[in-house]
Structure formats: structure tokens, C-alpha cells
Amino acid sequence: MRLILLFAACVATPAFAQDRVAIPTGSGVANSPIGQSTTAQPAATVMAEPVAMMIAAFDRDGDAGVSRVEFDAGLRHSFDSVDTRKAGSLGYIAFSDWSERWLGDRNTLPSPFETDRDGDNRITWDELDARFALLFTRFDTNKDGSLARSELLTLRPQMFDRDRRGRPMSPPAQRPRN
How many domains does the structure of the chain reveal? Predict the structure, then answer.
């Protein structure tokens, strides 16, 4: 009988352990100590913009960095893959197709409105190249002419404005003025 109970306890223990994960909250709230078991996902502190993920995919030699040559070739390949008629430009709908294919969503940045510099409702290769040249310069924080993975990440400070369930906390009550 003891053997059966021991076996049942061993089998059931992993199931109980799976529904809650200890995640340090660090919120400083008295009812929310560090390591309290919760099912809430912690706030992300390191993120990659969709355009940064696209640029990281331009790495062809596997060195975990993107040189300017790899960047230019990858960008050209992405443009040509959508410009199937070889017109040399993309309308806004085709640009949205490009954005969905290469950035993961039709509404990601850069938008067609910021890329279309001459306002003709078409994005030419030169306009896309110019916009991405600005992005390359922005990401190349150490100015060495290539992009390391760490340069493609965005660091965000941890926010302590949410309760343990991830809901926004209300602002502190204001004292009435006399």
C-alpha cells in the first residue's frame, strides 16, 4: 500500500509543479515577495524590433554579425523578391506585402509613408535603400561598419508600474489641497 502511495505521489508531483512558475517580481509590494509563484509572464527587458530581426537574417557567413556588404545584398534580395515585374518600385500594397514577408507584419516600421520620400505613392529601390541606410547608421552604435547581434537589441528598463497579475497599478492617491 505504501508503495502505491509513493508511486502516486511521484507521478502527481510534476503535474502540480507545472501550473505555477517562480518568477522574481521585485515590485516591492508587501504581498508580492521575490520568487512568489505566479503564472504571469515577466515584462520583457530585451527586445528586437522587426527590422532588426530582418537585418540579423542578412548574415550570410555565419559570424553572428552583418557587414555592410551583407546588409546591402540582403536588402536588395528582399526588394527584388517582391518586385517580381522588375518595375523598380513598389506601390503601397506591394510594400505592405514586402513588410509582411520580411518584417512579419504589414504594419511594422518603416512605413511606406516615411519611406516614400517624393510622395508619388511608390517606393523605389533608392528610397528603400536610403531609409535602410539611416537604420544601419542608427543600429551601428560602435560605428565599426558592421552590426553585431547586441547592436540589434533594444534594452528596456524593467517597469514596476504593474501589479503581480500584470495589470496597470493605479497612481498613488492625491491628498486634497486645503
Answer: 2
Distance CA 70, CA 83 (A): 20
Whether residue 64 is found in the same domain as residue 131: yes
pTM, 2 dp: 0.62
Q: Which of 34, 14, 12, 39 lies closest to 24, judged by CA?
A: 34
CA-based nearest residue to 155, from 145, 144, 170, 141: 141
Pairing of strands 21-22, 37-38: antiparallel
Q: Is the peptide bond before 110 cis (omega within 30 degrees of 0)?
A: yes
Residues 78 and 92 in one domain: yes
- For residue 128, which amino acid is it? L
Q: What is the pLDDT of residues 84-95, one digit of tens each?
A: 889 999 989 899
Residue of 99, 126, 100 lying closest to 112 (CA atoms): 99
* The three cell numbers locating residue 12: 502527481
Query: What residues make up the domain containing 100?
Result: 49-152
